[in-house]
């Protein structure tokens, strides 16, 4: 015999509240992995890598101290048809404006690495913003462009640094492959570290002026090209809108 159950009004209300609570719990659990604002900007994590099926990678350099190897470095990049991204410190721009202009005029990106290379997480919000904006103004004066991609010195950031940067219109860029060239590793060690860790969407970190960087790149770039990787500038690799960034810093389109 078919039984028909009639729910009281109070029971219906209780069931409805339970459903709403369960939906809310699911939503919170889902959003904790990838948090998005209405503008599609991540809330507290920089971009370490891009989630993509394309074999595209970005070669980035932090330029803070000297430009002694500029001629050699530019020659290697030119010979291999590679366009890179240079995160420059404001003080570097002050000392070597012609080098910075050369980066730009050669088709490479010139991006923001703060004005004086301080630990951003130890600064006040006013000091953080001044570091970003002063460097960006110097970049614009030399290159005529302002791309507002920022990398914190030493990779040192906290939620305040990221959220302040985003509020000021910057995207914060880290890396997922670290050459550790600043430790004066050998050419073979640098090449092995990078070659063994690169994947689609990787952002690689190098430094101009490091002891064995140029020598390592001479062999590394062809190796990565043989694997089918295409070198692009970081600004051409990342998504600038309509994206999520998960807790590990992986950026994905949505």
Q: In the CATH scheme, what's the topology name? A: TIM Barrel
Total helical segments: 9
Radius of gyration: 23 Å
Largest sheet: 6 strands, parallel
**N- and C-termini, Cα separation:** 50 Å
How many strand segments?
11
- The CATH superfamily is Glycoside hydrolase/deacetylase
| Helical/strand content category | alpha/beta
CATH class: Alpha Beta
Which percent bin holds the helix content?
40-55%
Form type: globular
How many domains?
1
> Into which percentage range does the β-strand content fall?
15-25%
Residue windows where pLDDT falls under 50 for at least 5 positions? 1-7, 17-42
CATH architecture: Alpha-Beta Barrel
Q: Note the run of SSEs as H and E.
A: HEEHEHHEHEHEEHEHEHEE
The overall average pLDDT, rounded, is 88
Give your account of this protein's structure:
The protein contains nine helices and eleven strands. It is α/β, with parallel strands linked by helices and 254 residues long. The strands form three sheets. Strands 2, 3, 4, 7, 8 and 9 form a six-stranded parallel sheet that branches. The protein has a single domain (49-253), classed as TIM Barrel (Alpha-Beta Barrel). It is 41% helix and 15% strand.
């Amino acid at each position: 015999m078919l039984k028909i159950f009639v729910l009281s009004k109070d029971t219906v209300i209780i069931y409805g509240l339970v459903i709403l609570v369960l939906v809310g719990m699911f939503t919170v659990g889902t959003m904790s992995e990838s948090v998005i604002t209405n503008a599609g900007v991540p809330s507290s994590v920089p971009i370490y890598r891009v989630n993509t099926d394309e074999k595209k990678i970005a070669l980035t350099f932090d330029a803070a101290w000297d430009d002694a190897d500029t001629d050699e470095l530019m020659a290697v990049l030119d010979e291999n048809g590679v366009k890179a991204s240079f995160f420059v410190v404001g003080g570097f721009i002050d000392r070597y404006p012609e080098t910075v202009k050369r980066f730009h005029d050669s088709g490479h990106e010139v991006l923001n690495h703060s004005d004086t290379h301080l630990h951003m997480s130890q600064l006040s919000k006013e000091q953080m913003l001044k570091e970003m904006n002063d460097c960006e103004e110097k970049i614009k004066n030399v290159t005529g462009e302002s791309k507002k991609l920022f990398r914190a010195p030493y990779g040192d950031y906290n939620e305040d640094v990221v959220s302040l940067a985003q509020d000021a219109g910057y995207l914060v860029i880290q890396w997922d492959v670290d050459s550790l060239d600043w430790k004066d590793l050998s050419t073979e060690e640098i090449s092995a570290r990078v070659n063994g860790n690169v994947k689609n969407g990787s952002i690689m970190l190098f430094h101009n002026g490091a002891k064995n960087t140029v020598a390592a790149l001479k062999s590394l770039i062809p190796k990565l090209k043989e694997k089918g990787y295409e070198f692009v500038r970081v600004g051409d690799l990342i998504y600038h809108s309509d994206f999520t960034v998960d807790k590990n810093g992986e950026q994905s389109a949505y």
